[in-house]
Amino acid sequence: MLDQTLEVPKPKVIAGAKFDWELVIGLEVHAQVSSNSKLFSGASTTFGAEPNSNVAFVDAGMPGMLPVINQECVAQAVRTGLGLKADINLMSAFDRKNYFYPDLPQGYQISQLYHPIVGEGEVFVELGDGTARLVRIERIHLEQDAGKSVHDMDPNSSFVDLNRTGVALMEIVSRPDIRGPEEAAAYVTKLRQIMQYLGTCNGNMQNGSLRADVNVSVCRPGAYEKYQKTQDFDYLGTRCEIKNMNSMRFMQAAIGFEARRQIAILEDGGSVNQETRLYDADKNETRSMRSKEEAHDYRYFPCPDLSPLEIEQDWVDDLASKLPELPDAKKSRFISEFGLSNYDASVLTAETRNASYFEKVARSRDGKVAANWVINELFGRMKRDGATIENCPVSPDQLGGIIDLITRNEISGKIAKDLFEIVYAEGGVPAEIVESRGMKQVTDTSAIEAAVVQIITDNPAQVEKATLNPKLAGWFVGQVIKSMGGKANPQAVNKIVTEKLGLKD
C-alpha cells in the first residue's frame, strides 16, 4: 500500500542579512484539455498547424457568433477532478473576464470565477528524500486559452496566431501549502502524471500544454503556523505571481530568486508590491510585468451567451466508473504484486507508457528481475540514445524472451547483456539469436571440470594463495569463464573450483 504516513518535509528556510525567512508557495497550473476541438467551437486543436488555420468565427471574435459548449471538455475536467479526489459541482457557470491582449480578439476570456466545475481536492506529493506533503486543491475551472503573439519574424512588426485561441484550459488552483522550490516542482510533476494517466492533458510543457503561474511570498518562522490556525493570509506576506513557467528547473530557480528579492526589500524596511512578474532565464531574475493592485477587479460578469452548466450525478458516476488505474494505485500494486521497492515502483509508474511496458515484461515472470532489466538496462540504454519508450527498438516480448533464457539457465548474465545489445541494434527473436550464434551457456560439467583442472595446473602459485585465503577462489572462476568464452555456467564453475581446490563450500 502507498505510505501516506511519511514525514512532512520541513519548509525551505532562507537566511537573510538580518533574519531567517520561510517560503510560502501556491500554484495556478494551466492545463490544456485533451480534445479534438476547442471549448466553444468546432475548430481543431492540432498543435503545429499553419498559423491561423485552426480558427472558427467565434474564436476570432466575429460579431454575432455564439459559443457552444464542448461536452468532451466538460467530461475531461470532471475526470481530472475525480482523479484529484475533488468535489464535482453539478452546477457551474461561465463569466466574462475582461482584459485586453492582441491575441484575445474577443476582448474578454470566457472563464469560471464564482461557480467552478470542480471544488476542493488533494494531491499526495512524494519527494525523493522520504518525505511527502498533501497539497490541497482549491478549485478547477474551465476557461479559454489565448492566442500567441509572435515577435521574432520581423524587426518592426509583431504577428498574431489565433490557433490556440479558444482551446480549453483547466486552471488548477492550489492552496498555499507548498513550502519550497523542490516541492513546487514535485507538485507540478505529480499533477502532470495524474492527468497523463487520465488522458485529460498531454502534459507537454515545451509546447505550452502545461504551464504554471507561481505565487511566492516570504514570512518569518512561526507565521505560517499562525495562518493555519486563523486562516488570516496577512501572516503569509504579500505574494507576487511569476507568470507562465514551463520548465521545472526554471521554476525552482525563479522561486529562489523571487524569495531573495522579497527578503532584501523587507529587510531594508520596504514593502513588497503585489504584482505579476516574468522570469528571465538568461539573467536568472524576475522582472515586473504588471501591477496587481487591482487584482480583484477584472470586470467579471456572467457570460450572457451561455446558460449555467448543469450536469447529472449519474453522468459523473459513469465517468468515475471508467477511470483508469491512477499512479498512486498502480505504484501500490506494483509494490505488493511484484515485490518492488518504493524507488523502483516510482520510476516505473512515472509515465503511463513505461508502466504498461513493464507490466508486459513482468507478466508471469519474476517482477524484481523484470524491473531490474527495464530500469537499468533498457532505460539506461535509451537514455544514452535519447530514445523514449514510444520508439524503443526492443519490444516487451523481446526483453521478456531474454529474461526467460536467463531463468532457464540457457545464458549467463554476461551473455544476456551481449544478447540485449544485439536485439537493441538488430532486432530478432532472442532464443533464435542464441541458437544461431552459439551463445548458449555451457552446462556440461565434464567440460567445465576439464577447464578448471587446466587453470589450476597452470597456476600453482595462485592455488597456494587461494588455499590460505579462500576468497581468492573467485580468480579461478573468472579465468575458467574467460577460457570458455563466457559461456560457462557461473554456478557450476564456482562449485567445481571449490571442490578441486579443497575449499569448504
Structure commentary:
The chain folds into 3 domains: about 15-295, no CATH class; about 325-435, no CATH class; about 445-500, Arc Repressor Mutant, subunit A, CATH 1.10.10. It has 16 helices and 16 strands. It has helices at about 70-85, 180-200, 225-230, 250-265, 315-320, 325-340, 340-350, 350-360, 365-385, 395-405, 415-425, 430-435, 445-460, 460-470, 475-485, 490-500; strands at about 15, 20-30, 90, 95-100, 110, 120-125, 130-145, 150, 160, 170-175, 210-220, 240-245, 275-280, 285-290, 300, 310. Strands 1, 2, 6, 7, 10, 11, 12, 13 and 14 form a 9-stranded mixed β-sheet that branches. A 3-stranded antiparallel β-sheet has the order 5-4-15, with no helix packed on it. Helix 6 (about 325-340) packs across helix 7. The longest helix is centred in the middle third of the chain and has 20 residues, at about 250-265.
Topology, pairings included?
Elements: E1 13-15, E2 20-32, H1 71-83, E3 91-92, E4 95-98, E5 108-111, E6 121-126, E7 132-144, E8 148-150, E9 159-161, E10 168-174, H2 181-198, E11 210-219, H3 223-230, E12 240-245, H4 248-267, E13 275-280, E14 285-291, E15 301-302, E16 309-310, H5 313-321, H6 327-338, H7 342-349, H8 352-362, H9 367-385, H10 396-407, H11 413-426, H12 430-436, H13 445-458, H14 460-468, H15 473-483, H16 490-500
Helix pairs in contact: 2-4, 6-7, 8-10, 10-11, 13-15, 13-16, 15-16
